[in-house]
Specification:
- Two copies of one chain form a homodimer.
- Chain A contains nine helices and eight strands.
- By secondary structure, chain A is of the alpha+beta class.
- Chain A has two domains: 144 residues, Jelly Rolls (Sandwich); 48 residues.
- In chain A, helix 4 packs across helix 5 and helix 8 crosses helix 9.
- Chain A starts with a helix and ends with a helix.
- The mean pLDDT of chain A is 95.
- The interface between A and B is medium-sized, with 27 and 27 residues.
- Chain A binds a DNA duplex (30 and 30 nucleotides) through helix 9.
- Chains A, B: This is Crp/Fnr family transcriptional regulator.
- Chains A, B: Pfam families: cNMP_binding.
- Chains A, B: It comes from Flavipsychrobacter stenotrophus.
Amino acid sequence: MSTPENTLRAQIEKLVPLSDADWDLLLPHLELRMVKKNTLFAEEGKMGKEVGMILEGCMRHYYTRDGEERSTYFYFENALVGPYLSCITGQPSQISIDALADTQLIVFPYKRLAELFDANKTWERFGRKLAEWALIGVEERMVGLLTLSPEERYNQLLAGNKQKIIERIPQHLIANYLGITPVSLSRIRNRITKK
Amino acid sequence: MSTPENTLRAQIEKLVPLSDADWDLLLPHLELRMVKKNTLFAEEGKMGKEVGMILEGCMRHYYTRDGEERSTYFYFENALVGPYLSCITGQPSQISIDALADTQLIVFPYKRLAELFDANKTWERFGRKLAEWALIGVEERMVGLLTLSPEERYNQLLAGNKQKIIERIPQHLIANYLGITPVSLSRIRNRITKK
DNA sequence: CCGTTTTCTTGTCTTTTGTTATCGTTTTGA
DNA sequence: TCAAAACGATAACAAAAGACAAGAAAACGG
């Protein structure tokens, strides 16, 4: 049955297959949560405590530098989301996560996941796979920043598996994501449509 | 005793403490290797098979784009080095690694590590910690590229725990690492010394 | 539904970065 | 040891991006 819980389980099982017994170790700790548009799910300076998966809506992951927000990731339905680095380092979060639209989540305490890492080899493997998967994503992102021009990065966004970003995220936040100003992005779009 | 093997063990134990029994599972698979200056340790297009730790020397991790080499990481003594992403994805490597000086390594097959992940909870945890540690590093790097100017990135290199890069890496490769041209880096250095 | 706010575009000007080329200096390898 | 290659600084010019401002368009909230 396609309950929110089962959707989460399916996402987890993309990394590691779980027995029902494994799953039952996490299941009681799940909680449904609504995060209203423009409110925070995680906040800079606070300890990361919870992670979750988006059932409906979308969220933004951002740093604050010189009082300016720098958006670094966007999350949509079925994405795992949370102050992951804070959770694994045990340091206060350097980032905030807010909702760009009313967002329905299924969340659980990272602490519970850490307990499962200790208790259970399958969950420990999930922890490895999760980190590896995240690493692959960031590395790809970093290489894009290092080797592609802003225009190429935008085209890559159009071509790749990230159209959701184009479709659902305001342009000035996309500019942010690409490491350029909104004005520059507008000009890039102008250039492209003329081709 | 400070053998090469023990140095590697110490590096691994920075992430996860090992019992002697755990260690003995990897020990027989270690191999000393010399990689001569300007020769490859890993090559784009090939499957990643081995990872290792530098005993002496230094290495460079780079992508090739439009026939140009884009250096992304540098490794020195005690650093773990290898085509890690290729190893974990099972895809051909997108990067090459070469030696910038004659480099002495202690290497082992990633395949053996994967066997240990399957066989042993401690090693599985090491796999998680390793990926998490790598993730933290790349994320920091990515945020720098996204939120700092080239000059700020260079200053960060000077100030941070990366002086080795300044000291031991040719400037045009550092420029590469910062995502700028050698000429730009030369200007930045000129500007800084005048302050 | 209307007024306000946010978002996007466009123009001008300035700054930064890239490109290309030149010139010492250093390093390298035969 | 010596010629060739690599490296770094610098200059002149071109291209790209940023800053700032004004105005149109779209979204939002009461």
